[in-house]
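Session log. Operator J.P. requested a structure for one protein chain; no other inputs attached. Running the standard single-chain path with token output.
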Amino acid sequence: MPALYNRDIPYCDDFYEFDYIKYPTEVKTVTFKFLVIGDYGVGKTAIVRRYAEGRFCSNYKVTIGADFAVKSVMRDKDVKVNLQLWDIAGQERYGFMTRVYYKHAIGAVVVFDVSRMGTFKTVVKWLTDLREKVALYDGSPVPVVLLANKCDIAGAAIPTETIKKFCRDHGIEKWFPTSAKDDINIDEAMDYLIDRALDVNHQETKCCDTVMLQGKSKSSKRCCFR
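Structure written below.
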């Protein structure tokens, strides 16, 4: 399926109910929503375009509100993931609309510019905003990967050990040095987050099955992401 990039963002309150579709080949299909967040100018749109469309452009228009891209990927030969990438404008951290944009996300990519210390310092604010507004079905934080983007630029301002310590201190499972320009670690980062989302999906499905077996399918706690 070709990648799509569309500013006309669909919204549906029931978006994130999981619904597996079985094909004759026993391939299962699932839809995941990932957020791409971080300050203005760190390369979020370039990362999304590189991953979804396989191309890089040095001149991007400033994202207003949010942009939206779709890519389908196969995992383990029997799972098709329809991935929705929501590219959130860097100015939106202070806006009330982030709660709408974040709704039903199952993972997040937080991006900073490795050559600009200021964009690294604001990562914690993006994490706080994210964790205040979206969580998994059990209340735990959504999986996050941190991208130290523009690693192709010589003389990075932020030492590797500083980034590693930040991840340990703030519960970030994985970080990657990336370059949308040179196509470095973009696929690897997304693959990691997809695998984490599949793990979460598996646990969520087991939760729903357990609730139904116990005769509590009408419980006030829905087995879906909020």
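Operator note: The chain has a mean pLDDT of 82.
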